[in-house]
Write a structure and sequence with these properties.
By secondary structure, this protein is of the alpha+beta class. It is built from four helices and eight strands; from the N terminus they run βαβαβαβαββββ. Strands 5-6-7-3-4-8 form a six-stranded antiparallel beta sheet. It has a two-stranded antiparallel sheet with strand order 1-2.
Amino acid sequence: ASSHYCPHCIDAKDGPTPTPHTHNIGDSYIQQSIEIPPPLSTRPPTRTTNSPSGPHIIYIVTDTCYPTAQSLEANIGSTHIISVHSTKSAANSRAKKIIYDNDSGCTVDIDKIIEEVRQGMYVGIGIGAKDEKEGCCFARKCEVEGKIVDEDSDSEETSGESGESELIDAMGEGEGEDE
């Protein structure tokens, strides 16, 4: 293949030096494959908004802080959604990391963390560090909850691609759900 200046580069007036391009059969094939989509029979199946995609399960990682023993007993605490995942294993890893990182203002004694897996989903409960004065809580629970989401629902504002992502930040855009 020989180097030459394409007509577009020679006629360009905004740069001091034209950019050399090489043109060969391979380049024209690549360019053609970008511009012309393959026949329908060779394309992978795509999901459209009209086809029924059915309900999907998403996994929500929550972090709950209980300020007193009474609040833990009554299961009344301050809960935050940390993240939403498309796989159970990713959600379990995130929940375990959160409770052991101990950095949300509700610190616990790492030696007093009890871990459990319920229906394949992680639950970690830690008891607060008594010797701390600031940022201490009685107990903390990081857990994974599975939720069924119907992508065809009218209340969904996503394009249906959110299920393909490994991690969706809960602090992102969108309306909160009423339960």
